[in-house]
């Protein structure tokens, strides 16, 4: 059964698509009516980004970055895209597939934000934690991912991921190895964010985005738009920003932020244009940096006649540090529990999972 336009409603407070039976519970909330098919196809614009930095830091690719990726992947001949934590890219791939009959590219979204399960069927979204390779819906979701990766004997598939800022690299590396192993069983452009104050495109962003694409695709195959200030370096065999000049001493285009870096012969490397060489520190740094030099003595008690390794207070210091770590862990666990309680749909509830799937089926049938 499909819902007519007049019965499609979305509760902004609960971030939930509503069925007619839900209306009474949400009558005092801010509810948006007449949810169109276009809105259902762009859930990232309907949902509020999760921006609580202690529990979530959800920054979404700008459409221009997604469009670049979609065009690039299509031109390189990829037919399937595993979107890990990239809901905007998933949306644009599906929009391209539905609007262009010649397009044969499709995608599967793996994301920690379970709210997306209201908008996608089981074969296009899996509730997933990229830090421990956990599928919340168990073997069924894992098999959906495995089937997607192994389709056409694993040919024509690519993974695109956008890990959270500050996330640990080691667990992500383990997860990606597991996804690659699952695939094998069957067989840098700047990135802007729409809702990040610093890394927006153009004048609204305070800085040029330092976020870059890291890939195992040969760099010379990733063609960056010349009209946006990129050029091809024949020596490095990759596209770089116009200001990123090739250094003959480093034999590389060394800039990491788009500006022209300067070569320091004392440091034997290129440094940021705002840095100068400090004779006290024996390295390049900002002009107003603090020159402290090497610190003598013990880091624990401050005495100058011994080092930390021989300090008599080292055991007490270890106990204090251990207590601090335990306190932080307890605080973190408490915060996670509170965050879990505060979510309007508990992903551990089988009943609520079924309810979300029912919403998806009734809304997406139309």
Describe the main β-sheet briefly.
5 strands, mixed
Overall, the morphology is globular
**Pattern of helices and strands:** EEEHHHEHEEEHEHEEEEEEEEHH
Content of β-strand = 15-25%
Strand order of the largest sheet: 7-6-5-4-8
Q: Helix fraction? A: 25-40%
Instruction: Find the count of extended strands (DSSP E, 2+ residues).
Output: 16
**Structural class by SSE content:** alpha+beta
The whole-angstrom Rg is 25 Å
**Uncertain runs:** 339-348
End-to-end Cα distance, whole Å, is 9 Å
Question: Given the structure, what is the number of helices?
Answer: 8
Q: What is the residue-mean pLDDT, rounded to a whole number?
A: 81
What's the quick description here?
By secondary structure, the chain is an alpha+beta fold. Helix content is about 30%, strand content about 15%. The protein has a five-stranded mixed β-sheet, with helices on both faces.
Structural features, described:
This protein is of the alpha+beta class and 366 residues long. It contains eight helices and 16 strands. It has helices at residues 37-40, 43-46, 63-75, 87-99, 138-150, 169-185, 314-342, 350-364; strands at 9-11, 16-18, 31-32, 80-84, 106-111, 125-129, 134-135, 157-161, 230-233, 238-241, 246-247, 252-253, 262-264, 269-271, 276-278, 283-285. The radius of gyration is 25 Å and the shape is globular.
């Amino acid at each position: 059964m499909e819902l007519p336009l007049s019965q499609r409603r979305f509760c902004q407070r609960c971030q939930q698509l509503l069925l007619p039976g839900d209306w009474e519970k949400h009558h005092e909330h801010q509810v948006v009516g007449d949810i169109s098919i276009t809105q259902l196809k762009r859930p990232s614009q309907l949902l509020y980004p999760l921006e609580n930095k202690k529990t979530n830091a959800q920054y979404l690719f700008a459409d221009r970055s997604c469009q670049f990726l979609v065009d690039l992947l299509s031109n390189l001949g990829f037919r399937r895209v595993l979107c890990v934590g990239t809901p905007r890219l998933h949306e644009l791939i599906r929009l391209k597939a539905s609007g262009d009959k010649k397009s044969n590219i499709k995608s599967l979204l793996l994301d920690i934000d379970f709210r997306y399960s209201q908008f996608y069927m089981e074969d296009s979204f899996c509730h997933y934690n990229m830090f421990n390779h956990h599928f919340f819906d168990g073997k069924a979701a894992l098999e959906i991912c495995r089937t997607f990766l192994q389709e056409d004997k694993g040919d024509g598939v690519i993974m695109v991921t956008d890990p959270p800022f500050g996330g640990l690299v080691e667990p992500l590396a383990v997860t990606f190895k597991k996804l690659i192993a699952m695939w094998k069983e069957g067989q840098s452009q700047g990135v802007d964010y729409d809702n990040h104050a610093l890394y927006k495109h153009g004048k609204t962003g305070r800085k040029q985005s330092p976020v870059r694409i890291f890939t195992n695709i040969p760099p010379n195959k990733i063609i960056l738009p010349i009209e946006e200030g990129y050029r091809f370096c024949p020596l490095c065999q990759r596209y770089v920003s116009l200001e990123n000049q090739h250094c003959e001493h480093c034999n590389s285009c060394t800039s990491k932020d788009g500006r022209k870096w300067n070569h320091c012969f004392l440091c034997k490397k290129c440094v940021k244009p705002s840095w100068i060489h400090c004779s006290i520190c024996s390295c390049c740094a900002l002009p107003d940096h603090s020159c402290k030099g090497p610190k003598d003595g013990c880091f624990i008690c401050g005495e100058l006649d011994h080092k930390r390794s021989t300090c008599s207070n080292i055991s007490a210091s270890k106990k204090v540090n251990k207590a601090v770590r335990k306190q932080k862990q307890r605080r973190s666990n408490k915060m996670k529990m509170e965050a879990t309680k505060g979510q309007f749909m508990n992903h551990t509830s089988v009943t609520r999972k079924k309810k979300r799937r029912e919403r998806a089926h009734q809304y997406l049938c139309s």
